Amino acid sequence: MSREDIVPTLLSLARRSDDFVAPAAVEVVCPIAADESMRATLLESGALSLFNDMLRKRSDAVMEAGAKGLATFAKHDEQAIIKSGLLMKLAKDARSPRASHRDGSIHGLVALNAEIPVLVQRALDEARTVSDLISQLRKKSHALPAASALLHLMAIDHVVDMVTKSEAPGYILNMLKRRWFDGDNGEDGVGVLQRVLEIGPLRAAILDLGIVDALQSMLAGENSDTVYAGLQYLREVIKHDDGKSITCKESIISPLLKALARPRLPLQRNAAAILRAALIHNEHLRPVIVEGLLSKLGSRKAAELLGVTTALRVLSFDQDVRDAVVMNTNFWGLSHDYYNILKLEYDKTGPNFREVYQSVGFLIKCVQGVVSHRQPDDSQWLESAPYEFRKDHNTVLRLTNALERLSLPLSTLFNALGRH
């Protein structure tokens, strides 16, 4: 193959929407771009336009290849990048509501920033990319995509500084208060929150604005969904060292104990996990936590008893907790009922008898040092608690609820459908 045929052939291969061929072709193009004459041929053949198009592909491998191609040209010939106008186009597309345009453009900008940071910064400033994305955090329909875009752009150092010193931390705190991190239409809102909290300067700015008060307010509410969201958000915050300070506040213990009484297992699981973290990191809260739990062992409400016995079981790794349980009269009263007749008050949305009875049994065995192969691994059980989105965001539940409101029984409906 002649020298003149190499470039068209490689670019033709790179145009394929293929996870293997296209990236491989770009891998060959990048080294030859160091040669001035070959680079000129690549430019004449539309290489920059091709790399830009590759950023729009759904495939991560193809998008990565396109970004690498642009960065390679920037390294050897930044004037070609400037003349092409690609930087401004990428900066404008980075604030686009269309994910296919936005995500690839941000990927390209981050790659280019490694080679021409001053030019990338200038393009972002002139296009008002960061300020526009920050403004979008105020609107529910745009908030999560805008937050996700900003987080990707914060791989660029000066963007981190711009975001943390702007109104963005306040807007993000407002998103948390309004439960926008629940996500809509399949969006992974909690995943976005996790990424927000992974950026130290941004996390610190949000903590300084009063995230503790916001979360405590959510936990103190009467709405079960709001309490559940508050617990899930709190779990994400306390994964970080500066966030663990929230669990040292005695005022947060009472809402956690109250949450254990709610007839919703994932919610109870989160409350138990946070109580466990509070006990581990704050010795002075041990009496408040343990006495609060033991006082509720006398309850015979199915949901509350399940929550309390679960929490005590996950805290029973601590010898002092086990000793306190064994010495408690409520525990012995519960043990008596367990081995005789355990009468419970049920909630229509709460646990069944078997679930509560099993939880009580596990607690009794734990504090008495009896090993059971049926007992769950508490650390794994607590970690495997994914956030369940609100019912109104769940298509299956929404359709089921709509059908339940019809007078026509589901069995009749399915039989009718089967005849057609």
Overview of this protein structure:
- With 420 residues, the chain is mainly α.
- Among the domains are: 245-388; 390-420, no CATH class.
- It is built from 27 helices and no strands.
- The longest helix is centred in the N-terminal third of the chain and has 17 residues, at 60-76.
- It is elongated, with a radius of gyration of 28 Å.
- InterPro entries: ARM-like, ARM-type_fold.
Task: Please tag this protein with its features.
420 residues; mainly alpha; 27 helices; ARM-like; ARM-type_fold
Helix content: 55-70%
CA gyration radius, whole angstroms: 28 Å
N-end to C-end Cα span = 63 Å
Q: What oligomeric state best describes the polypeptide chains here? A: single chain
The dominant shape is elongated
- Tell me the number of helical segments per DSSP (H or I, 4 or more residues long): 27
Beta content = under 5%
List how many beta strands DSSP finds: 0
Q: H/E order of the elements?
A: HHHHHHHHHHHHHHHHHHHHHHHHHHH
Largest sheet: none
Assign the structural class, choosing from mainly alpha, mainly beta, alpha/beta, alpha+beta, or little secondary structure: mainly alpha
- Low-pLDDT stretches are 391-398, 403-408
Rounded mean pLDDT is 88
